[in-house]
Amino acid sequence: MRQTSNHEILEDLPGADRIAKGLNDVAQGLTTIESCLVEIARPRLESSGLLKKAPHSLDREITLYNMLSKEPGASHSRFNALLRELVSFEHALDHRIRLNRP
Fold first, then answer.
1. Residue 86 domain-assigned?
2. Nearest to residue 48, comparing CAs of 2, 3, 1, 90?
3. Do residues 13 and 92 touch, judged by C-beta distance below 8 A?
């Protein structure tokens, strides 16, 4: 059976571009909106093999909200929208992984 690459696993999932950027930002040690989303999803991303095991930061939701509050616009609405997109991504990722298992 052919091994599926990380790029193929992420392809066409909701918010995949944001997660891919976040994975890159985490690897570089950057704190960005995208890296916060990846850290929030860390347990799911670790179990899928997209992220190496590391301690999970419990304050990433707060960090994300604080970053959004410094940008123009409704930070609460954007925060909720990002979390909804993240949940959709996680569900789609779980489904894709189940389909790719032998």
1. yes
2. 90
3. yes
Contact present, 33 and 16 (Cβ < 8 Å)? no
Q: Which of 43, 42, 47, 46 minimizes the C-alpha distance to 98?
A: 47
- The range of the structural domain enclosing residue 21 comes to 6-100
Domains in the chain, number: 1
- Residue 1 lies inside a defined structural domain of this protein: no
In tens digits, what is the pLDDT along the chain, a chain of 102 residues? Answer: 344 556 678 889 999 999 999 999 999 999 999 999 999 999 999 998 899 998 777 799 999 999 999 988 889 999 999 999 999 999 999 999 888 776
Please say whether the beta carbons of 89 and 20 come within 8 A: no
